[in-house]
Amino acid sequence: MKNELQRKMVRERYGEIALTSGKCCKSHEKEAGDTKDLSLTMGYSEEELRAAPDGANLGLGCGNPTAIAQLKAGETVLDLGSGAGFDAFLARNQVGAAGLVIGVDMTSEMIEKARSNAEKQGYSNVEFRLGEIENLPVADAAVDVIISNCVINLSPEKDKVFREAFRVLKPGGRFHISDIVRLAGEPTENGHKDPKICNCIVGAERVDRLERLLDDAGFENIRIKKTETSDNLLKAWENSDLPLEHVVSAVMEGRKPV
């Protein structure tokens, strides 16, 4: 019941965002020009921002997972919580016509928006599937790389997310995730009842616990590191109502053993 309540709040809020192109919290309440500035703060380049279809970038991330993933032509990439498709579209440019990008999101409005963006551009190497990241609609050992941008913190069952990620990766497959993590303290008590769970801070987990969950799922070469852009991003959020103490934007990386 607790987990479903949290999912319901997240699904409804992000459904509203998809329909209105609104933002998830005060930190993200930006006009189009400010969305661009915020995205630059997250580590995206001007070229990447120009390459994405109109309406794909809602300014909801906390990093640039495609910049750290070192994607190769022909790879199959899975984007967890793909939203309107921004990172998936950037990834498809890197994997090329021989590659495939699969976006999974639990919000039907986001899936519709992403599919519309892809159809308008005539993209044939990217697809979007409705589903939960704790129960991925993806076959075993089907993808080479997993990316995600500020989504894992929203899950009430992060252990399931990591186990599912391990399941769908090919042996030797890797993940490169941007997310908000906690250096100290605890996730907000009763966060599953707090509408602010959607702001990427309330559900942020401690680094040591994330490392343990990833290890328990079977991953190796685990690395969780504060990003170079974290201070600038949190500074951009400092006039918001977010509880920013003890949190940073971080990169999470790991590999499934061969």
What does the secondary structure layout of this molecule look like, with pairings?
Elements: H1 2-20, H2 32-42, H3 46-51, H4 65-68, E1 76-80, H5 86-95, E2 100-105, H6 108-121, E3 126-130, E4 143-149, H7 158-168, E5 169-182, H8 207-217, E6 220-226, H9 230-237, E7 247-255
Parallel strand pairs: 1-2, 1-4, 2-3, 4-5
Antiparallel strand pairs: 5-7, 6-7
Helix pairs in contact: 1-6, 7-8
Keywords: Methyltransferase, S-adenosyl-L-methionine, Transferase
Domain Methyltransferase: 72-218
InterPro entries: Arsenite_MeTrfase-like, Methyltranfer_dom, SAM-dependent_MTases_sf
Q: Can you describe what's shown?
A:
- The chain is α/β, with parallel strands linked by helices and about 260 residues long.
- The protein has a single domain, classed as Vaccinia Virus protein VP39 (Rossmann fold, 3-Layer(aba) Sandwich).
- It contains 9 helices and 7 strands; from the N terminus they run ααααβαβαββαβαβαβ.
- The protein has helices at about 1-20, 30-40, 45-50, 65-70, 85-95, 110-120, 160-170, 205-215, 230-235, and strands at about 75-80, 100-105, 125-130, 145-150, 170-180, 220-225, 245-255.
- Helix 6 (about 110-120) links the parallel strand 2 (about 100-105) and strand 3 (about 125-130).
- The longest helix has 19 residues, at about 1-20.
- The relative contact order is 0.16.
- Residues about 25-35 have low confidence and may be disordered.
- Its EC number is 2.1.1.137.
